[in-house]
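Known limitations

Files may contain more than one protein. Parsers should not assume a single record per file. Below, a two-record file is shown to illustrate correct handling: read the sequence, read the token line, then continue until end of file.
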Amino acid sequence: MVLLISLHQLCREGELDQKLRAIHINHGINPGADDWQAFCEASCRRLKVPLDTVQLELGSMAIDNLEERARNARYDEFESRLGSDDCLLMGHHRDDQMETLLLRLMRGSGPKGLAGIPITRKLGNSKLLRPLLIFDRSALRQYALHKEINWIEDDSNQSIDFDRNYLRLKIMPLLGNRWPGYRESWDKSLQLSQEAELLLTELAELDLESVVTKDRQVINLAALTTLNEPRQRNLLRYWLTSIGFPSLGWQRLLKLSREIISARPDSSADLSCGDGKLQRYREELYALKKTQLFNPEIQGWNLHHQLSLGLPGNGQLSAALRVQDTKLGSQGGLLRADIGELTVCYRNGGEAFRPAKRPTKSLKSLLQEAGIAPWFRDRQPLIFLQDKLVCIPGIGVGEEFSVEAGESGYKVSWKPPNLLYVKAE
């Protein structure tokens, strides 16, 4: 209410030329939630400030989960209602900042967490600003009393079942009695943490340029391991945040650094988190989607009628007529142009194949030798003529189905789906 009244006064006096509107989130948790909404509606109506009201359905759950879910839902609503030219102003004050600092310290936060609540940050396509963050709660209360501003006290603020309330009601008064100037001292620590986080971010940006590949979701491990462990973790934390990957937390970040990255070069170790998975393959670390929709159904393919074939959830096959060079090339030659009706299948286990001019080997060995990443091996299309495996795109054409130098044949290729991690909208 102090924030609303102050902004309204600035607008009325011509000190603020932006249009002012308000938003109230009704969480539906407290029995008095509807009365609170009615109070906000009456206050905004009196000030002639447009008000949006939103009612949330959160269900029942443990207190800690309820707090987090309510916060996430609240900010989702804020973000969805703000345009690129909007700025959301919130009434957090310095005591909120001190409580947040203690809570994050209890959780073992690093410099980013210990930097506290930012005065300003991005919120979707808009901006969030907390102009009252430099004021103590007591100062705002005195201002409200002096201006005869009415407000509502949330009765749940008296429940020490909530960690923040416990700090506010039990711990902070003790600190204030013993160290009256602790807020000013902690402000210095917050400032130092903010500066440390800024420097760590700038360092991570520089380091990332030297280790990221053409795909931003892939890290070159040979380059990464030239850095010491703390610098690696700083870079990895920044990298994962930049691509929208779920936060790993300290323990999983340690595991990634000490077990996945330092594993043997032939290891395909992985680490799952949320809807993503981090997997090592050879000298690279990949950020992948965890849930991969793929139906390995058998499909017919007649090259005389169609030169491309979509594979449900698995990219696309394509064929193009070419003249066979004297060399087979890296992908093993061309498929005979007079080939009949083909069938596209997938591995069942135990398959063997003899590419032209090469010895017979197990499919497993051929996939490994060709550098096919583990997450693509079950997706690798196998092209059959009746019961004979005639072509593995990217690996080769069977000896008896390939063409000689100077003859025409089909160059068969597979464009696999993009399995790299992309944050869900």
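...continuing to the second record:
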Amino acid sequence: MVRIMVFGTFDGLHAGHFDFFKQARKLSSKPFLIVSVARDRNVLRIKGKPPFFNEKKRLILIKKSGLANKVVLSGLTNHIPHIIKEHPSIIALGYDQKAYVKNLRKDLKNKGVSTKIIRLKSYEEKFYKNHLLRKNYH
């Protein structure tokens, strides 16, 4: 099994998320997908507003979806320790993920972890974004 780790807020699931998980799984013929769910306070800090669903509800949503082999909450103040704990072979980043990624390879290497980092493609990015979906429903 190849341990593949992805990160996100996952504030409700939509077709873009399903495609994201599918792309991540395709990175190996024997994937073990680990989904890291962003903490509420980190979402607020990065996006400037709190998530619609709290972190526990978002974690449960991913677990119940059956899309991941393992679901974890991200670190509260430092994202590196929880990545090291899961020891992924591959980190699959979303096309628009910018927080925490600038020095990710270097930060992991400094901790003795060599992980392949891959940027996934977007899926109808002009439509499948939670803030756009919510706007269309209101």
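Parsers that stop after the first record will miss the second one. For reference, the second record is described as follows. The chain has one domain: 2-137.
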